[in-house]
Amino acid sequence: MGDNLKYMIGNDKDSIFIGCEPFLNGIANFLATLKERDQNRVKIFDKDVRILLSLLPKKFFSKIIILFPDPWTKRRHRKRRLFNKININLFLEALKKDGEIYFGTDVEDYFSEVKNFFLYNNKNYKIENERNFHSLPDLLSETKYSKKSLKKTTIPKYLVIKKKVDIL
Fold this sequence. Notes:
single chain; 21% strand
């Protein structure tokens, strides 16, 4: 946790941010670099994000960023993926109308699974960057994981998904 969150905090002086990270080392590393003036604008949730989503009111977020979650590459483990057909509705319910979800991964089948969900199963959301999945959206910065994937010669891909109507 941290690279992209720090980037967003530095580029948006008005918003409040919630970072979710269940690993204490990630939280400690992030907090060590957080500027004092930004501390009131950042909240840290140290458990699974799905717990947070169940506690907050619906239509709470204008943006949700999910970057390089554990891909659970073995077929029998795919149901554990954070962004899957079951969990995806938790994120969609938490999003305001015209809100956006940013998703990044370097695992092709994970990317395809999420992309296809929005292309074929859900007409209330639109993929905003349909012509260019390889470009890092302006809101985001390179992270430790995106840099690692480029070193492995896998190319990270990104989705920007916009909620068109309030249905939930």
